[in-house]
Each structure stands twice: as C-alpha cells, then as structure tokens.
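Internal QA ticket QA-208
Title: Verify multi-chain structure generation after dependency bump
Assignee: T.L.

Test input:
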Amino acid sequence: MRKRIVLVLPAILALVLSLAASFRQADVKVLQLGNGLKVLLVEDHNIPNIALYTFFRVGSRNERTGLTGVSHFCEHMMFNGTAKVGPGEFDRRMEFRGGSNNAYTADDMTVYTDWFPAAALEAMIEMEADRMQGLAFVPEVLESERGVVASERRVSVDNNNDSILNENVRATAIMAHPYHWDVIGWMSDILSWRRDEIMAYYRTYYAPNNAVLVIVGDFEAARTLELIKKYYEPIKASPPPPPVTTVEPPQMGPKTVLIRKEAQAPSYMAVWHAPNVKDPDFLPLSILAKPLLDGESSRLYRRLVREEQLAIYVGGGVQETIDPYLFMIDVKPRPGADLERIDRTVEEELAKIKAEGITPREFEKAMNGVRSDFYMSLQTISGKANQLGAYELTYGDFGRLFTIMDDYAAVKIDRVKEVAVKYFTGNNKTVGKLIPEGGAK
Amino acid sequence: MKTSVLRSFALALVAVLAAPAFGAAASRLPAPEKIVLKNGMTVYYLRNSDLPVVSFQMFVRGAGTAFAPPEAEGVAGLTAALMTKGTAKMDADAIAEALDFMGASFNLSCADEYAQVRGDSLAQHFPKLMEIAADCLTGPSFKDEEFVKERAREIDSLKSLKDNPGAAVRSYFRKAYFGSHPLGRLASESSLGKITVQAVRDFCARRFRPDHSVAAVVGDIEKDKLAALLEATLGRWANPAGAAPSDGIPALPQPKGRKLVLIDKPDATQAYFVLGAPGYPMGDKVTPQAAVMNTLWGGRFTSWLNTELRIKRGLTYGASSVFWTWAPGGVFQASSYTKNDKIGEALDITFGLLAKGGQEGFSADEIESGRNYIQGQFPPTLETNASKAGAYVRLAFYKLGFDYYDKYLAAIGKVSPAEAKAAAGALLPRNDYVLVVVGKAADIRAQLQKFGTWQEKKISDPGF
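Actual output:
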C-alpha cells in the first residue's frame, strides 16, 4: 500500500517534440541561493494544491560498510523531531493543514515529497527548511525508529523471495562499488548504527548545497521565492561531501547465485554490468529493453510466458544511475519451471539481438512507448515535480527533461545491436536462481 | 530508480486515491457531457486538451467476481483476462502488438460488483484503441489454447501469491469473512482447475452487455469526433436476447462473536493480521462521519493505530484501517504486521484502541485535523484524465450523482466530535469480528491463545 513513486525510469524519459504546448522549460523558474540551494518553481493552477519535493544528493551510494542503510534511516528520522518541531509534530502539523507526505531513498538520492492545499505553503516551507538543519535525534525516538526500519526490512526483503534473490544477485554482481548493498542496508547494520555516526552522516549530506527544492502547483512564484529566501537563506552551507571514488572493476567471468529456501515458486534473474545514465550507450540500451522485455508483445514475454509457458511475468531493463549499475532481466517462473531452460531462452533471445539488432517497427514502438509514458507522467503536479528533480540530480541539469527526446530520436537503430554485443557477454553476466525447498511443492 | 525504500504510510493514501468516494475538498468534479449511443449505452465525456492523451473507462454491472457461479469461483476474472486474448479479427499476439506499438494501455479486470475496462493512449491513437476495445467486447474468441494458458498462469500466480504473506493474508481474510457469500468468491488453484472454456463463454455472453454498462472518456478529443467514433465502435455492441441476469449482491454477512483463523507459514519472520467487521454501504449517510473517524483511528500516518504501533513503539512499518464499501454493505478492516514475538502485543494495542474510539471519542482539534486532511487530500484524486473518467463511471454506477463529491466535502466540513464518536461506537468492533493471522505458528501460537480458539490451516494447503 505504500505510495510508490517511481523515479524517472528510462521509459519515462521524454519526447519533447510536441511537448511545447503544455510544459516548457521557460515555465520553470530557477533560483540558486547563496548557500547553494537550487530552487525550481513551476506554477500550475489545475488543482488548488501544491507538490513540494526536496531532493538531497545522498543515497546508499554514499554509505560504507557498517553504515549501510543509514541514508534511508536519516529519511525516517527526518520526521522525528528538530529543536523547534517535536518528534512526530511535522506530520501532525502537516496533516492538520490538510497535507500529506512521503519520502523515498534510492541508491543516488533521498527525496521528501509533500502534497498540500495552497494555503499551507508557508507553513510547509518553514518546516522543510527547519529539518534541513536541526534534526534532534532523540535517543528513545531513534531506537523506536530503528525497530520500524527493521520491520520494513523484514517485510520488504526478508519475507519476499524475489527481494532476497535480488539482494543476493546485486551483491554478487557488484563487488566493490557501494551499489553492492541494497538501499535498506544489512540487518546487522540496521541493528548497530550508533547515534553519533548517524548524526555525522546527516550533517555531511543534509545541507542546502547538497539539495534541490522543486515546487509545482497553485502558488504565485514571486511570493513563493520570498518565502524560500526568508526560511532557507539563513541555513549555512556545509563542506562539500566527499566524492564517491570507488570504481567497480570489470567482471572477469560468469557468476551464479543459488538460493535454496522454502517457497511455492522459484525465482530467476540475470544481470549484466551496464553504463551510467550519461554514457552514450545508455539510451541504446534503454531502447533495447522495450522490445525485449516491455509489454506482452515483447520478445521475452512472448517466449517465456506465452509460447513456452515457463513464466508468469517478465520485466527489467537498465536503470538511471549516477555510477554504472546493472541491466536486469527479472523472470517470475511458474512453480516447477526449469530454470536452466529459462536461462537458455534468455540467452537465445539476446543472441538474436546481438546478431540482427531490433526491427524498425520495434524501434518505432519503443519511441511510442517512451512518449506515451512521458505524457502520462506529466498529468500531475507531483509527476512534474518528480521529473524535474530527478533529472536535475541524475543528469545534473533539469533542462535535460526538455531535450532528451532529441537524443532518443538521434539514436541510430544499429547502435542497439552494438550495445547488445558489447554488454550481453558471458563474462559480464550474473545469474540468480531461488529454488524451492522444504515444504514447497 | 532501482530500489526505492519508502517511509510511506500506505493505506491512507491508497484509500484516498483508489476510492475517491472517501475523499473530500476544494476542487470539484466538472459536470460531464452525456453521449447516448444507439444501443442505449451512456458515455460521459469531458474535454481536456492540456496534454495529447485520452482516457477511457467503463463498468459492466453484474460482471464482477461476485457473479461467478459458486461452482466456478474465478470465472469472472478469467473471462475478463481472456477477452483481450483474441477476437474474430485479431489473435492475442496481434492485440498485444497493436497496443504496445501505440504505447497504449488497455485492460479488462474484475471488481466484485462489476467488470472494469480501462484504456489510455496518446490522442492520435485513441481511435485505434477504441477499435480494439470494441473488438474485445463484441467478438472475443475464447480459443481453447488461450484458455488453457491463461488458466494455468492464474493458478501459478496464486501459488506465488502465497510466498508473499502480506498479500496472502488479504485473500485469507476475504474467505474467512465472507465464506460462501458472493463477495467470498475468490479464485483458487482448485476452483480454477474446474472451470471450463464453456463456462467462460457463458459468463461473457450473459453478463457483458451494453445495457449494463456505463462509460466515460476524458481527454484531448472533440465531442463530435468522439460521438462518431463511439457509435462506430462501442455502438456495434448489441444487447443479448432474453432477460438480463440478476446483478445485485445479497446483504453482507454480519459476524457474531469471534472468528479466529491462523495460517501457518513456517518461514515467516513477521506475523501479518487483518481484522474485519461490518461497515456501511456505498453512499450511506454515515459516510462523512465514518471517514473522519477512520482517518483519525487508522486512516493516515498520525492515526491512533499507526501512532501506537509504529511511531511510539516501532513494532511495525505500517498499520492502518479502511472502510470497504459495496452497494449492499461494507466492511471495516484494520491491518498490520510485526515480528513474530510481538504479534500478541500488537493485537492487544489494536483491541485497546478499538474500545477507546467508542468510549472516549476524539478531541475537537483532532476532528478539525481529520476534516482538513480529507478535504486537503481530495483534489489530487481527480487530477488525471483517468481519475476523472473513473469518478464519472463510479458515481453513475452507484447512482450517487455528479455533485456527490461537493455534497460529501461539505458534509465532511461539518462532522462534529460527537458524530465521530458515535460512528466509532457503531462501527469499530468490540466483540464481533473476524481476525486472520498469517505467520509462523510455532512461534506465535502461544501469544494468540488468549484471544480465543483458532482454526489453523497451512499456507501450502490449496485455496484460501
């Protein structure tokens, strides 16, 4: 039931050719305060509400062994009190004004999402500015929240076979870079972070010079800028956080993860190291993912689900990340399905693309999908806020949102074949299998 | 991006987003125009040219899961799924290819009381989308081969569902609460195995009919063009001969005493519970009072339930409550999960809060906060074309009137502490309820004994 906000997936990237009529770069007012806080404002009076999104450049990518999961924990603590606003007060005050909020932590970023009626704007800006600088980390509250996060890990990973496999595959494929661990962190770390370590981490990364504020909705820009200056300008910048310097070494041979546990159905996934979001190979790979994996007409869905009936669903693709991550193929096998045969089928379909590329019709289909997803994502003020902020953080330029379709359109179809040959090699692959055991059938 | 871990309060938002009938506040639903097709079907329409996209929604009364014959539980969902798997003109692959090529989405699915058809596309592709929709509604082929595949896929999906206790507990609750009542008609491995393709054909022929359907289109398309398009597509759909089948659901069960069910999942490290009791029907006059009460009790992040279980004690990542409503009645449902050794404590706290609601009620500040919250969170529920189209068909289906949200939001603004307390006293269960727990029985059985006598099942047993 979580309100899951999907960060700009490659699929949601843009076709801006005819976007001009509705949402233009000129609609975005940009301001950078002296303390480094970047502000993006878009007036949108469609509904009498406002979406206020705060993006911090911190995620599990910035963590280290012993402190895995601490970015996500800071996200939780952001609702648990500052010197001015007591534990839980942020939520109580916000809900009293008709607002609601959420937050998410990813590998590369942590995002705070507020949705509220227009009249609550000043109160929300004041509270958001307050928690950018003065979290209290009350010891008893911290311990209670540690229990919440442990429960979250149990429900999202430990009691979910696909997540267990995912965590193992990621940690096997990536051995050096912090993408090695899942955003939630290892359970032993969750149970052992020390308060002083958490506070030091917060002070390093939660600073105006490490944040982007995006506000979209029913407000008047000039007055809103005044409010932002009033509440955010007094916050001091912090020293720039240390850069992430670890580079994942090339994989030198195929890897396999095998998990045996009680389950009704097996799980399967395969991953290959893939480039980061700014690499010239990224768009060709994200185009490739569509005819391979996306929709019931995709090559792998047809073979694995429809024709050979080995699986219930197929998904995956390449992820937009600051550092190189993985291209994933995620298959939910039918109970009793032969995982070796699934793996062979995946390889056969990849071999076809390596030999022949994709068809012009598949290319056009991928473009239509990208375009349709993009417009759907811009129907809401929260969709716009999320897109702008995510582009600003991953590409370093929100303006890319308005031009990226030109880049998509410029990809030559032969590039899809080239990147398939380059990345889908045996030595670059990690395959994971979860095999039911014990009480399973 | 790849892994998002959310702080998230689940239910409050979803309850508001998925069922705007509970929502409330400032932005009203614009009155739609009405297009009546020659076959008698009504389509509500609103122009929105902000973006070049169009959304279509339709409810088919009497074609939901509750109308499956008792010997064919799951036939409704199977029918809906198979209607997009081949027609007289296009086979399943051709339909999937056409939809994916446009980047369009189109699906048929089943709620309890109705089947639901949803489609979204770029404006330029909308005529083709409606062609496909009409084709699926008027001429599904139900080929044996597709039937066998889809049935096997659904059976396997149900087995996989049981690996996810948070999802499985809802199905177990459904069955435990409703039993043989039509709202308990859940597809299971064994029931699906007995369904024949003829049963699917019969269900479709009897239950999918234009005179039981209401639709809406919202987006970037002119009315004249749309009217002609609809006549040429949905207008081809003819009513079947003979009298329409029944489309009502009998009164809901009213549990007396405690019904306790424990599902043993030996590898679970958390225990999941769902507790339910009678609620109220869709559109009932108690709706505003119940909505404010539930918002405060378990419907949002700072609710009593989430405050006690999560915020104060860190027992869980999420705890929430909701009212589910159907035409003849409803159900109140509270749910959460916690690690195995804390399930007894979590349930004690939950029962304590259920009693407190009716005994102590809520403060004036709490009531004001609950009213503001419902009203403030309402506008985004009608922000997209699809959500407006969904609201039109829902309001038409339940005959609530297109000014329903205006009235509802106004009523929310007037709910008093005394009314919310009365709603809590009437609707929060004390002694009569159904409680289902999924967890590792060996670790939790002892903690559960004090609540009464439990029926126990294994998660690996077929069905729910």
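Spot checks passed. Residues 1-21 of chain A have pLDDT under 50 and may be disordered.
Status: verified.
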